[in-house]
Amino acid sequence: MKVPFVDLKAQYLKLKDEIHSAIQSVLEDQKFIQGEHSKKFENDFCQIHGATFGLGCSNGTSALTACLRVMGIGVGDEVILPANTFFATAEAVVEVGATPVLCDCEAGTYSIDLISAESVLTAKTKAILPVHLYGLPVDMENVQRFAETHNLLILEDCAQAHLAKSNGKPVGSFGEFGTFSFYPGKNLGAYGDAGFITSSSQVNIERARKYINHGRVEKYEHDEFGTNFRMDGIQAAILSVKAKYISDWTKSRQAVAEKYDNALKNNGFKVIENKNFECVYHLYVVEVSNRDQVIEDLHEKGISSGIHYPIPLNLQPAFKPLGYKGGEFPVAESAADRILSLPIYPEISDEMMSCVADQFLSVAKV
Ligand SMILES: *Cc1c(COP(=O)(O)O)cnc(C)c1O
Prior knowledge:
The chain is of the alpha/beta class. It has helices at about 10-30, 35-50, 60-70, 90-95, 115-120, 140-150, 200-210, 235-245, 245-265, 290-300, 330-340, 350-365, and strands spanning about 55, 80, 100-105, 125-130, 155, 165, 170, 175-180, 195-200, 215-220, 220, 270, 285, 340. Helices cover about 40% and strands about 15% of the residues.
């Protein structure tokens, strides 16, 4: 049985008519940028996610960059982030001229390890950038206490955690800002690039709104130097259609994860520890000791799998000039050698899932 890693086509076919008429309506009214479609989607996503204030933008990376700019982070500043994340988390810090300072993650949750974070604090540390990796919320009350103690700003990377809650509150509401990605394969995906910024502060959101739109106050009056990180109207209209289904899709992901959990945990495999907060399972990650063999065997049976992410940031070639080397972040590095992502998406059938679990169990070693 063929099981792809994700199946965006299946989702598209279900929504085809709605999507086509959404795109058509943008073409008809010619509101390609910053029009009613973007405004509607901003309201839709805030309501569904539980955000107080929100702003559509061009992608998840530009969202991070814009927030760091508005937070006043720049040359000479350091931002602490976990070594186990997608490259973009660090890239945004470099983009604003600041230095990404890496720390380790926790073994059970893959969340930023605050003990490790404390060990890399310096007089230049201005902010901490936790990542809700795989859709599992970081314990944000702990991060808030840490940030208060050390006088740091907080920016949450929520690119993989649409609709997730930490300590009963939506992710992206704890610090200055939260940022989201609508890259096509994310839990809520556009048909191109798109991103989002949330905040509990209207002042913050309005400053970000100005920054991503050329620092504008009027069409040709500019208060400050900003940039163009705006959301595309067609993407906004598509996302408004999909936003109606994201709650159900999230429940489906959680149901799939529970079934995988039942099959794998009983056999002693280490899976994402979601006992504190509900995970929205952007990815379903399990650790194995014979990963190459598992990937190859699954592939032979028509099952796709992935690794998120195979190289921790400290071992990325781009980080070499920053003086990082191997062995500094033992938990993140060990995880990078052992983690495997199994197919998880709302459209996966029970039959496909059982096939994945059976094949996995027949070859994988704890
Ligand atoms: C996807 C992702 C991003 C970047 O989002 P883009 O929309 O692709 O720019 C940033 N951080 C994390 C953790 C991601 O998964």
